[in-house]
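Milestone M4 deliverable, item 7.
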Amino acid sequence: LLSPSRTDFFSRLLPMGGKQSKSVVDFNEASKQLRRDQLSAIKESFHLLCDSKSTRDSSISKEKMIEWLKDRYLPADIDKLILERFFQLFDIDSNNSIDFSEFLILEFVMRYGP
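Output delivered:
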């Protein structure tokens, strides 16, 4: 579940309105701040979710990602509209799936904070 500081952080990220067009955190910046073991753990999680050994041209479906978010980070009783908006925050290219760069940003924010 979200800590009070995370709740405040996400309340600032979830304003009402259109889709966010820019990443919450830059992929390159997030990658640089992660240790090798942290990056490996994120890659492993991504591969398990998208059923692929490759990060190139692989993605996680919106449905699978939403279920994973609810299981891992978000309250079980979260409102569906908030969950949809949360997904949109990290679906940077708005293609209704999460590729590796989007997943890395999501995991970086959720595990290690912005």
